[in-house]
Amino acid sequence: METLVGKTTQELEAVVQALGAPAFRGRQIAQAIYKRQVRTWDGLTDLPRDLRARLAEHYDLAPCRVRSSSAAPDGTVKYLMDQPDGEVIESVFLPYPGRTSVCISSQVGCPMACSFCATGTEGLARNLSAGEIVDQVLLMQSLHPEQRITHVVFMGMGEPLLNYAAALAAIRILNQEVGIAMRHVTLSTVGVVPNIEKLADEDLQLTLAVSLHAPNDTLRSELVPLNEKYPIARLLQACRDYTDKTRRRITFEYVLLADVNDGEKEAHELGDLLRGMLAGVNVIPYNTTDVAAPYQRPTPEAQRRFREIVAGHGVTITQRKERGHRIAAACGQLKRSALRRGSMMRSLPVIAAAPSGKP
Ligand code: SF4
């Protein structure tokens, strides 16, 4: 069944009008689901009981349900969320001093098959709808009412630019209905060039993160098979065009793999490649506990040397403090089969269920 979460105010007005109710009832629904995170029909107290009942005959309110959660000592909480068809996705709540981020999924699984990533090993099950994307944020906000979510990053499962229409619809709802500042939305892509070009024309002030992971085509094609289709030169041209049009700085994500892409040669190549671009690099040392791949985490000394060399080329390079979750590759890292079994994470008691509670 369709859900009301995922519809704009205008669309909600049309929904209620089709049921013979005045348009302002649609605005009341939008306020309730997006501003107050109401998740049950009974919670829609502004609406007459009979309208709630008629809506419930045709729609579900929200798609996501918490299956399980695990909390890290630093406050990070990872959620596994059930979707209406039984698929499971991963979302992460990340409190920082002065801001609160959430990391959300855009697809169930991922078709990109990056060699270091568990999510990519099992392929794509399906795209998420705009409602399923937005509802990850709403559900986490409802579970953490004391901490207002200020930032949203599309770095969970999936490649958002392969689910372009739903991802963009979700971003617009998060901005216009939920109130997340567009500059606080980060969309991470592994480099779907035609859709980077399309995104540049959308006139959105979001932050684009591009998973580069290697400074030359031979190595990048090994790590990121999509590079065969969109080699580095073409990808970087699309990135330059993007920054020219939007004047927004791009972040290049680079997972550091010991003795694979973390050497002095690669650091110099990367510095040469990105010098002069409106961009910075974020390095993420590989987390060896993530997946059964033949990669190792570089030593702290190798990490420091890599950063110094790249910075020596005049390229801004950062290494964020790692949090209690697996953002390691700038994308999702969990296998779908493991998610179904719930075996890759320590399942703690579910913090809160979210019943649909029809009247
Ligand atoms: S690293 Fe990202 S793009 Fe690559 S397979 Fe994993 S989820 Fe997909």
Automatic annotation (TrEMBL):
[4Fe-4S] cluster binds at C110, C114, C117. Belongs to the radical SAM superfamily. RlmN family. Its main location: cytoplasm. One of its GO terms (molecular function) is rRNA binding. Its cofactor is [4Fe-4S] cluster. Reaction proceeds by a ping-pong mechanism involving intermediate methylation of a conserved cysteine residue. One of its GO terms (cellular component) is cytoplasm. It is an enzyme of class 2 (transferase). Residues 96-326 form the Radical SAM core domain. Binds 1 [4Fe-4S] cluster. The cluster is coordinated with 3 cysteines and an exchangeable S-adenosyl-L-methionine. Its EC number is 2.1.1.192. Specifically methylates position 2 of adenine 2503 in 23S rRNA and position 2 of adenine 37 in tRNAs. Pfam families: Radical_SAM (PF04055), RlmN_N (PF21016). It catalyses: adenosine(2503) in 23S rRNA + 2 reduced [2Fe-2S]-[ferredoxin] + 2 S-adenosyl-L-methionine = 2-methyladenosine(2503) in 23S rRNA + 5'-deoxyadenosine + L-methionine + 2 oxidized [2Fe-2S]-[ferredoxin] + S-adenosyl-L-homocysteine; adenosine(37) in tRNA + 2 reduced [2Fe-2S]-[ferredoxin] + 2 S-adenosyl-L-methionine = 2-methyladenosine(37) in tRNA + 5'-deoxyadenosine + L-methionine + 2 oxidized [2Fe-2S]-[ferredoxin] + S-adenosyl-L-homocysteine. One of its GO terms (biological process) is tRNA methylation. Keywords: 4Fe-4S, Cytoplasm, Disulfide bond, Iron, Iron-sulfur, Metal-binding, Methyltransferase, rRNA processing, S-adenosyl-L-methionine, Transferase, tRNA processing. The active site is at E90 (proton acceptor), C331 (s-methylcysteine intermediate). It is found in: Cytoplasm. S-adenosyl-L-methionine binds at G158, E159, S188, S211, L212, H213, N287. It comes from uncultured Armatimonadetes bacterium. This is Probable dual-specificity RNA methyltransferase RlmN.
